[in-house]
Amino acid sequence: MRAWLQTGFGGPEVRRLTEVAAPAPAADEVTVRMLAVALNRLDVLQRREPVIPGMTVPHVAGMDLIGEVVAAGADGPELLGVVVLIDPVVSCGRCELCLAETPTYCEAFQTIGSTRDGGMAELVTVPARNCTVVEVAADDSDSLARLAAVPVAGATAWRGLLGAGGLRAGETVVIPGAGSGLGAAGIQIALAHGAEVIALVSGAAKKERAERGGGVRVIDRSATDDWVAEVLALTGGRGADLVWDHVGGRFLGQALRATRAGGRVVLSGTTDGLDTELHLPDLYQRGRSIIGHGSYSRADMAAAVAAFGTGRFEVVIDSVWRFEQLPEAEARLESNDFFGKIVVLGPSFSPSTAPERKDAA
């Protein structure tokens, strides 16, 4: 089979389309023919360096995956020919932590597309318990692309805002990266639950795009020296009830200052850096809280899939690419000149049936 195989760490040249042996499913696994895979920032970060403990090369990336089951192990369920959406979090499923719906704390924890091979290939093996059956045709590229965009962004946003963050109707939440798939998903979830949203973007074009749907106040970080001051101005000096920090780095200290007294910051990601500096009085003198995102559960994933998959929320797609165009799709992700999720279709979509590139309107 063909796979985009990463053989080292560095630029785009370390990932090449290569013939590799097809994987065989273990007893509790199924083999899935990839129909669409949505890109994540981690795909680029771990191409450059092994940011996730346990990630090694050679490696096949791709966490957000939808595909058709073509084979099953001895203990696998009868799923042949069924289209399934994949939860990338793999754990033992039996220990106390798994049974408590915290699979990322399991000692056997792995991630499809990071610490085990993922969806940037014609075929991938996954545990059968990680599959959610979805009602979509295997040749419906539009629906496949939208569903592929759901798992990581949808479940992370659901957990970060509603689970860890406890976001309630009437509260004001700050969501950075409104142009990212994660930020766009978070905005949809927050609005649907009655929150007031202040979105952060970089650039006038992204500001216009974020404002297009209505109901969101948008701050262009590239047009101000102090986005915290802008948040305080928009909230009458009070600050936000919640800041959802899915970027990390120096943003965390700024997020604290943007919250009200007794407010909270949920940390859900570190794409902008693993380390930060805090002015501690901002934390203890004002009674603010920093909350770790923690493990999203299968229930979080199921809720997100149900909400986005049934059209309750909008899935924001930036562009859709053919399998052979992965380098171009990844370059768009690295450019930061996108809005929404970037999706690569499976190789079954030939040049005659797949779009050259389809940008969001």
TrEMBL record:
Residues in the signal sequence: none
Alphabetical list of Gene3D superfamilies matching this protein: Medium-chain alcohol dehydrogenases, catalytic domain (3.90.180.10), NAD(P)-binding Rossmann-like Domain (3.40.50.720)
GO terms, molecular function: NADPH binding; oxidoreductase activity, acting on NAD(P)H
One Pfam family named in its UniProt record: ADH_zinc_N
Superkingdom of origin: Bacteria
InterPro entries for the chain: ADH-like_C, ADH-like_N, ER, GroES-like_sf, NAD(P)-bd_dom_sf
Keyword check for Ribonucleoprotein: no
Sequence ranges assigned to domain Enoyl reductase (ER) in this UniProt record: 10-344
Keywords: NADP, Oxidoreductase
Record keyword Oxidoreductase present: yes
Entry protein name: NADPH:quinone reductase-like Zn-dependent oxidoreductase
Species this chain originates from: Herbiconiux flava
